[in-house]
């Protein structure tokens, strides 16, 4: 087939995908930026008031707003705790999994699979019930009935973080386990023959070989944990008392759909998108460097 | 000795990880007085289906279950069709903008879809003015957004599976007189089926689990809510019907769990394939 014919057939095959992605991803991204430049409130939505172009006004308002910076800091800290927790738990269990018999490992993986596959809403609700002040099993075991985990800001954040780690460590564990298994036995034997200690082998042989995989799961976790929405929304009932458990995603939602400040909500969305795309660029560069080709 | 210790430890961890799910199923089968007892115990001597009955009748979970299934199945069906064609185009043909498209597919996966609720809300509102089925308060709007969100990853993942089918096979099929269309659907499609299974499970789960868009789009049409939203509506401060909530959660989790267990191997190898390209 000629090059031109190839191109034509290719685009015929691609047309439905391009149509959907263009209309429902590319166009909304463009709209997101556009809306963030306007004063877009309830009066404009209901059709009466004219749109007022603000330029970067919404962004100025955001950057000058103390609550925004508070929520921003909370989001970064919350995501950091979740990422570190997920990676530590996942890596630790992946290593343990290589040292036990198959049936024990299968039991662990099956349990992890259960946690992994639980829908976020269901998972959040189950955890809420387990940690319920009066009827929860955890308080019964700890003997602190009546203690509310979701009332205090920090215990609430801790509870949500624990739930997020519970449902996201399986991905890290399974991926790292597969990576460790893929290291050829001869490499480790050679290290042992050369007299390397177990620690030395882990540090100088296994870890460098796993680096690409560790990078992938780290960045993947950062991206996921940075945009946690459901868990926060469900477990702290929309961002906690007086919004003290907000993260950026929930904050944007509340600004847009609860306070009808659609322009401001869109601006927060743009900030998040830019941040995550920055991380993605880093990811792409790292992938390239580790020798992946598109 | 040390291995016994490690294995014992791993089994305890497995039990802790599985405990929330165990508690969910257990609570779903407990009679009401045991659920709201001040001294909950991790067993029950009087299992009952009362909570399921309440969830399905009082809270109308059956209807929401059906809605969730409808959305997820249509999304899976369409995304298989569209992503298969697109993945074939991106692996089997050489054209100028190919690399650009691939990079865009990767980048677009990283866009936080949650940030797009505002523009998508207005988009669905105006779509609804001309085609109500795809507008706000209708399941069609959910189908559209989940289709769009699951496509980039589905295409990306299928690419590896299509690439793994030798080109010689196509040449042989052409020599045997098969048309391009026949080759596509009768030769290539069955061969990449394992990849299709993995991608469709992910699309299914994505649509099935969604909470944010269901919450944003289905504003007033209670009959068109999906499971995650229904479950959330159920949770009321201080007067939760935990039994029914746990029964609902169980109903919601079981399909995903079954899917996951069925395809876990393919999923992991598919993910590895997607990373390796």
UniProtKB/TrEMBL annotation, chain A:
<dbReference type="Pfam" id="PF00528">
    <property type="entry name" value="BPD_transp_1"/>
</dbReference>
<keyword id="KW-1003">Cell membrane</keyword>
<protein>
    <submittedName>
        <fullName>Carbohydrate ABC transporter membrane protein 1, CUT1 family</fullName>
    </submittedName>
</protein>
<feature type="transmembrane region" description="Helical">
    <location>
        <begin position="262"/>
        <end position="284"/>
    </location>
</feature>
<feature type="transmembrane region" description="Helical">
    <location>
        <begin position="156"/>
        <end position="180"/>
    </location>
</feature>
<feature type="domain" description="ABC transmembrane type-1">
    <location>
        <begin position="72"/>
        <end position="283"/>
    </location>
</feature>
<dbReference type="InterPro" id="IPR000515">
    <property type="entry name" value="MetI-like"/>
</dbReference>
<keyword id="KW-1133">Transmembrane helix</keyword>
<keyword id="KW-0813">Transport</keyword>
<keyword id="KW-0812">Transmembrane</keyword>
<feature type="transmembrane region" description="Helical">
    <location>
        <begin position="71"/>
        <end position="96"/>
    </location>
</feature>
<dbReference type="GO" id="GO:0005886">
    <property type="term" value="C:plasma membrane"/>
</dbReference>
<feature type="transmembrane region" description="Helical">
    <location>
        <begin position="108"/>
        <end position="130"/>
    </location>
</feature>
<keyword id="KW-0472">Membrane</keyword>
<comment type="similarity">
    <text>Belongs to the binding-protein-dependent transport system permease family.</text>
</comment>
<dbReference type="InterPro" id="IPR035906">
    <property type="entry name" value="MetI-like_sf"/>
</dbReference>
<dbReference type="InterPro" id="IPR050809">
    <property type="entry name" value="UgpAE/MalFG_permease"/>
</dbReference>
<feature type="transmembrane region" description="Helical">
    <location>
        <begin position="12"/>
        <end position="30"/>
    </location>
</feature>
<feature type="transmembrane region" description="Helical">
    <location>
        <begin position="201"/>
        <end position="223"/>
    </location>
</feature>
<dbReference type="GO" id="GO:0055085">
    <property type="term" value="P:transmembrane transport"/>
</dbReference>
TrEMBL record, chain B:
<feature type="transmembrane region" description="Helical">
    <location>
        <begin position="64"/>
        <end position="90"/>
    </location>
</feature>
<keyword id="KW-0472">Membrane</keyword>
<dbReference type="InterPro" id="IPR000515">
    <property type="entry name" value="MetI-like"/>
</dbReference>
<keyword id="KW-1003">Cell membrane</keyword>
<dbReference type="Pfam" id="PF00528">
    <property type="entry name" value="BPD_transp_1"/>
</dbReference>
<dbReference type="GO" id="GO:0055085">
    <property type="term" value="P:transmembrane transport"/>
</dbReference>
<dbReference type="GO" id="GO:0005886">
    <property type="term" value="C:plasma membrane"/>
</dbReference>
<keyword id="KW-0813">Transport</keyword>
<dbReference type="InterPro" id="IPR050901">
    <property type="entry name" value="BP-dep_ABC_trans_perm"/>
</dbReference>
<keyword id="KW-1133">Transmembrane helix</keyword>
<feature type="transmembrane region" description="Helical">
    <location>
        <begin position="183"/>
        <end position="205"/>
    </location>
</feature>
<dbReference type="InterPro" id="IPR035906">
    <property type="entry name" value="MetI-like_sf"/>
</dbReference>
<protein>
    <submittedName>
        <fullName>Carbohydrate ABC transporter membrane protein 2, CUT1 family</fullName>
    </submittedName>
</protein>
<feature type="transmembrane region" description="Helical">
    <location>
        <begin position="242"/>
        <end position="263"/>
    </location>
</feature>
<feature type="transmembrane region" description="Helical">
    <location>
        <begin position="143"/>
        <end position="162"/>
    </location>
</feature>
<keyword id="KW-0812">Transmembrane</keyword>
<feature type="domain" description="ABC transmembrane type-1">
    <location>
        <begin position="65"/>
        <end position="263"/>
    </location>
</feature>
<comment type="similarity">
    <text>Belongs to the binding-protein-dependent transport system permease family.</text>
</comment>
<feature type="transmembrane region" description="Helical">
    <location>
        <begin position="102"/>
        <end position="123"/>
    </location>
</feature>
<feature type="transmembrane region" description="Helical">
    <location>
        <begin position="9"/>
        <end position="29"/>
    </location>
</feature>
């Amino acid at each position: 087939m000629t090059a031109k014919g190839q191109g034509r057939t290719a685009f015929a095959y691609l047309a439905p995908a391009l149509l959907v992605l263009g209309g429902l991803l590319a166009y909304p991204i463009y709209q997101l930026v556009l809306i963030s430049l306007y004063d877009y409130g309830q009066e404009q939505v209901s059709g009466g008031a004219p749109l007022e172009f603000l330029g970067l006004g919404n962004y100025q308002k955001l950057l000058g707003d103390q609550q925004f910076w508070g929520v921003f800091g909370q989001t970064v800290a919350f995501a950091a705790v979740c990422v570190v927790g997920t990676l530590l738990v996942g890596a630790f269990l992946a290593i343990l999994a290589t040292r036990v018999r198959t049936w024990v490992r299968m039991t662990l993986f099956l349990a992890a699979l259960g946690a992994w596959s639980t829908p976020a809403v269901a998972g959040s609700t189950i955890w809420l019930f387990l940690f319920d002040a009066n009827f929860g099993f955890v308080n019964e075991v700890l003997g602190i009935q009546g203690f509310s985990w979701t009332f205090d800001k920090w215990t609430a954040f801790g509870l949500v973080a624990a739930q997020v780690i519970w449902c996201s460590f399986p991905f890290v564990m399974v991926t790292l386990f597969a990576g460790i298994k893929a290291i050829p036995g001869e490499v480790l034997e050679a290290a042992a023959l050369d007299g390397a200690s177990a620690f030395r082998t882990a540090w100088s042989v296994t870890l460098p070989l796993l680096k690409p995989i560790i990078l992938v799961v780290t960045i993947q976790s950062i991206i996921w944990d940075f945009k946690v929405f459901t868990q926060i929304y469900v477990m702290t009932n929309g961002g906690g008392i007086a919004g003290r458990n907000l993260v950026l995603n929930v904050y944007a939602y509340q600004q847009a759909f609860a306070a009808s400040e659609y322009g401001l909500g869109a601006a927060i969305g743009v900030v998040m998108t830019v941040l995550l795309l920055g991380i993605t660029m880093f990811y792409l560069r790292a992938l390239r460097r580790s020798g992946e080709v598109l | 000795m040390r291995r016994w210790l490690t294995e014992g430890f791993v089994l305890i961890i497995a039990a802790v990880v599985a405990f929330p799910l165990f508690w969910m199923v257990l609570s779903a089968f407990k009679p009401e007085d045991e659920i709201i007892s001040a001294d909950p115990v991790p067993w029950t001597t009087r299992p009952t289906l009362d909570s399921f009955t309440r969830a399905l009748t009082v809270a109308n979970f059956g209807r929401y279950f059906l809605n969730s299934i409808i959305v997820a199945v249509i999304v899976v069906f369409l995304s298989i069709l569209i992503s298969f064609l697109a993945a074939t185009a991106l692996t089997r043909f050489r054209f100028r903008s190919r690399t650009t498209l691939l990079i865009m597919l990767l980048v677009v996966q990283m866009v936080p879809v949650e940030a797009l609720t505002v523009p998508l809300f207005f988009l669905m509102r105006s779509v609804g003015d001309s085609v109500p089925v795809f507008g706000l308060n209708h399941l069609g709007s959910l189908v559209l957004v989940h289709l769009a969100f699951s496509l980039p990853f589905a295409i990306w993942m299928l690419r590896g599976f299509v690439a793994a089918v030798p080109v010689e096979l196509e040449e042989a099929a052409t020599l045997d007189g098969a048309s391009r269309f026949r080759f596509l659907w009768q030769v290539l499609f069955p061969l990449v089926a394992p990849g299709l299974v993995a991608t469709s499970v992910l699309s299914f789960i994505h649509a099935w689990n969604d909470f944010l868009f269901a919450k944003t789009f289905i504003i007033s049409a209670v009959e068109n809510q999906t499971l995650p939203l229904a479950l959330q509506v159920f949770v009321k401060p201080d007067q939760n019907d935990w039994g029914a909530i746990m029964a609902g959660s169980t109903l919601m989790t079981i399909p995903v769990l079954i899917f996951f267990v069925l395809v876990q191997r393919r999923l992991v190898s598919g993910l590895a394939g997607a990373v390796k390209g």
